[in-house]
User: Which sequence fits this backbone?
């Protein structure tokens, strides 16, 4: 199998690329890592990878300096820039110094694998790559579905995005963007909606104390729950319950 290398000083970028790439499909081993251009040059000399992903802004040796050296020394290696800067000059500079592709952070699965495919077909035009991904890793769509399912079942617990980030090896920002693209709200907004809609249902039960409702939807502090509910509905829990009661009386009449 062919080798690949990621050169970036942000760990979450390493994990995102590693998770999203369809490595087996393109006969690639999962990437090795380096944190700056200087370490990257040493790594590329040791590993001889077919494919290198790199950031343009890195400590010690930046992407431009790395590309100037590495593209001359390793003309048969494909270099894909993964950058946080949507800037024409950055793109031009990267391509001019040997990059074959320029992708923006946060990494998008479809764009990443399209760039990998272009690079591998350019390097190995006579090779036939698999049509389907065979890796057992969860893809991005599966991850956001699992997060939604977890919230739907466990909204009363202490839910933090950082827990999902650590479990699925994606950054907070990337997970929130994926979730919002799929469901129209970020993870915290969705969690709030689930909790508040359940609170509305519970407030329709007259004998339930607001303190108990607060606990059942994930808030140990009743005052904090009341503020959150007011921000969501423009009514306090007591006002909402009173409005429900008045509406029932009107329906009876």
Assistant:
């Amino acid at each position: 199998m062919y080798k690949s290398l990621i050169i970036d000083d942000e760990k979450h970028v390493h994990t995102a690329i590693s998770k999203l790439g369809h490595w087996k499909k393109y006969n690639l081993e999962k990437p090795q890592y380096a944190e700056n251009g200087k370490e990257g040059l040493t790594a590329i000399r040791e590993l001889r990878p077919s494919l290198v992903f790199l950031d343009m802004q890195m400590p010690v040796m930046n992407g431009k300096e790395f590309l100037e050296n590495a593209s001359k020394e390793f003309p048969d290696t494909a270099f894909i820039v993964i950058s946080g800067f949507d800037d024409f000059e950055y793109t031009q500079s990267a391509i001019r110094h040997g990059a074959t592709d320029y992708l923006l952070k946060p990494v998008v699965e479809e764009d990443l694998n399209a760039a990998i495919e272009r690079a591998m077909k350019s390097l190995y035009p006579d090779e036939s790559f698999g049509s389907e991904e065979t890796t057992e890793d969860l893809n991005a769509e599966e991850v956001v579905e699992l997060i939604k399912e977890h919230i739907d079942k466990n909204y009363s617990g202490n839910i933090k995005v950082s827990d999902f980030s650590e479990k699925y090896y994606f950054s907070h920002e990337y997970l929130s963007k994926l979730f919002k693209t799929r469901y129209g709200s970020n993870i915290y907004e969705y969690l709030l909606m689930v909790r508040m809609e359940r609170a509305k249902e519970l407030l329709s039960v007259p004998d339930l104390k607001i303190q108990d409702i607060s606990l059942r939807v994930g808030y140990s502090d009743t005052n904090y729950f009341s503020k959150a509910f007011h921000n969501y509905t423009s009514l306090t829990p007591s006002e909402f319950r009173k409005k429900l009661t008045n509406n029932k009386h009107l329906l009876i009449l």
Q: What stands out?
A: The chain has a mean pLDDT of 85. DSSP finds twelve helices and five strands in the chain.
